[in-house]
Structures are given as C-alpha cells and as structure tokens.
Amino acid sequence: MASAPERLLRALRRHVADERVLAAIAEVPRDCFVPPERLSEAWDNVPLPIGSGQTISQPLVVARMCELLRLRGDETVLDVGTGSGYHAAVLARLARRVFSIEVHEALSRQAAANLEAAGGAETVTLVVGDGSCGLPEHAPFGAINVAAAAEDAVPEALLEQLAPGGRLVAPVADAEQHLVVARAEPAGVVLERFERVRFVPLVSG
Fold this sequence. Notes:
Number of strands: 10
Structural class: alpha/beta
Radius of gyration: 16 Å
CATH topology: Rossmann fold
Shape: globular
CATH class: Alpha Beta
C-alpha cells in the first residue's frame, strides 16, 4: 500500500514535470508545517488553515510555482508570505539561499519552529515585515516567490529587486486570480499568465 507522500507525488506527477521539484516536495515533511489538529490531512493535496487568517498552500500549487521559477540551485530567492514556512522549506532544497518575509510576527515565529522541526532548511532566513516592499537590502534576487495575491499587478518594488534574467511568480487578482510569471529580460520585464489559483490577499505591513 502506498504511503501518504507517495500518493501525493502520484497526484502531482500528472501536472508537474520537474523532477527536482517533485523530489523536494517528497523530502519536506509537510506534517511539520500544519497545526496538530490537521495532522491527518498533512499529505492531502489541499490547502489548510494555519491561523491569522492564513493557509498552508495546496502542494500542487507550491510545486507548480517552484516549477515555474525554473530554479537551477545557485539562486538567492525571496519568498514573500512565509506563512507556515512550508514553501520556504521546499525552495531551500532547490536554491542556494532563501529569504522569507512575513507580515504576521506570530506566523514567522511558528514558521521558525516548523523549519527547525523539519530540518534541511539551514539556508532560510526569516524576516518580519511588509512583503510587498521586498527586501532591497538583500537584492537582487535570482527568483522571487509571492505566496499571496497582488491586486491587479505585481508590486513594482518586487520587480525592481529581480536580478537580470531573474524570475518572479505570483498570483495576481483582476476578475480572477491567475499565476503570473515575470522575467527580467534586457528589454524589460516580460509577463506570462498561467492557471487560475486562489490565495489570500497580499497584506502590507
């Protein structure tokens, strides 16, 4: 009988082709990032509440966002919206260094405990602050992951913190939310829209 992680990977493989991403999802113990009362659902392919009106994202969405970033392993990544710390933990297995910013101090503290329990995330630095402003003191970033929905457009401050050739993935809300990838090309930022998603709004501090 397949284990819960194996069943999750089987479901993800229908939508995600990047083997590095799938390996990272398998390696990160999602049960370390969900509330105790949700442990039985930890490996289900669903979002779960984590407090402060926030959720831990659906594993498929985490995997797709990581896949769209096309990480090579040598990037410094900005993760906007730490939440439980789960997305940062996955990114840490795909990139060289991760800075993760969260506006809710209580969530950031819990994420630190979650990351320590999960292991393998020594390259993650947690910051409490306004994610829509990014972290200019640590820019530029080879990749930026935004785990909350921007209204109408990606904040300009985040686009300005992309390194040349860098990629940003974010849910953007107009009539509906879609994943949007921004690439910093020599001629300017190129945007491409992907599938529909549902995220909590991007909150300014």
